[in-house]
Each structure stands twice: as C-alpha cells, then as structure tokens.
C-alpha cells in the first residue's frame, strides 16, 4: 500500500519490575511526516523511544516496518532497519571535534589508518545536505553553541541514511533563535521524505512543525490528532487527562 506507514506499533507493552510503563500502545509514522509524541512527565514517552530504538525491547506487542512484522531487540536491529535516534543528552564527546563525533565508532580506515580526509569530506557533504554549517570542523564540540551541538548530533544520526528519526526534546535547552534553526532542520528532513517522531513539551514547536500528534497518558494512548485541525486546547486536555480518549489504534492516515 502506498499509504502504509514506515513504522507501526500495535499493542506494545513494557514493564520494569512491577511497574507497567507502557500498556497497549499504538503508533504510526509515515514517510514525509512529523509526528509529535506528547504527554506529561512519566507518561512513557522516553520509554517508547527506547522500545523503538532497541534500548529497552517491548515485552509484548507487534512492531511493523513497511507492513511486515519485525523484532527490535537491540539498537543494531533498529539501525539496520533504518531507525536513528537523537537523545536529549545528545551523547556527544565534548573533547572530540565535529568529525570525531560524527564517526565515533564508525571510523573510516584506509590501509589500516584513519582516513581523516575522507571523514572530513563526508562531514562537509552531510552538513551541506542539512544546509547547516559549524564554525570549524576541528573545533572541540564543547566550544559549539547548543544549537550547533544539536546539528552535530542530528548529522551523526543520518550517517546510515535512516528513514525514521526519533528526536527526544531537541529544543528543550535552546533559545529562540537556536530553536528556530533546529525546527527548520527537521522541516528539511521531512521534505526529504523522512518520518520523524518528535518528543516535545512545547506546544509552539508542535503547532509550528508537526503534522500529527499522539498523546500518551500514564503509559496509554489518550488521543491522536491532526495538528492542523485540532485546537491547542483539545491537545492539552488530552495531555492533562481533562478528556479521556483511549483509542485502540490510530485513525487511518487520511482521517488523522
């Protein structure tokens, strides 16, 4: 089906000891679409990202990739499918330069030695594709602004040519100008046909960028919204629990 999602979750459950963090969660991410994953603290958003990225595999449920059932038990499984994740802490090494961070653990070697020229060339090419620059590729990442570090983290995630990108609070610690830069970057990725799952507490970011919104409350689905037609009040009511709406699965792509 041309309209089938890249990634779909059905009935996903996750438990840590006696605590059930996710219960029968449904989610769909389509190509060329930004889906905002919303919910109060403790709603299960970060756990769901860990399930999709293979860091904390689901205990129950079905995960589909392009319509076929897949098993994501470790990060390599997600990466091999085409799923990349940028966590809130970015996981960058501040003492390494931009090139070193992008290729950390994926170094290019030639005749047994690091091919610094090739890695630098690919870094420049990738940043140009993102229409972003940094002051100096060989500058320690710790010397970059928060927005520039976010760009480096996103650029690193794109090395494997992923088709779905998971972003955990990418603008949480950024000022207005840097937030705008990151949102523009995500918008460009959507235009290239990538599916993006965006965790955010900022309704401004969600309204400015997202196509759809999926709300979690206490580990369960509590609403799916077309961001262009739903009011901010409707979405916030679903987040806070003022309205209870626990659908079994997302509406069809057209009805969202």
UniProtKB/TrEMBL annotation:
PROSITE patterns hit by this protein: ABC_TRANSPORTER_2
UniProt keyword ATP-binding present: yes
SMART domains xrefs: AAA (SM00382)
Domain called ABC transporter: residue spans: 7-243
Domain of life: Bacteria
SUPFAM superfamilies: P-loop containing nucleoside triphosphate hydrolases
InterPro entries, alphabetized: AAA+_ATPase (IPR003593), ABC_carbohydrate_import_ATPase (IPR050107), ABC_transporter-like_ATP-bd (IPR003439), P-loop_NTPase (IPR027417)
Organism: Streptomyces longisporus
Keywords of this entry: ATP-binding, Nucleotide-binding
Protein name: ATP-binding cassette domain-containing protein
Top-level taxonomy: Bacteria, Bacillati, Actinomycetota, Actinomycetes, Kitasatosporales
UniProt GO MF annotations: ATP binding
The keyword ATP-binding is annotated on this UniProt entry: yes
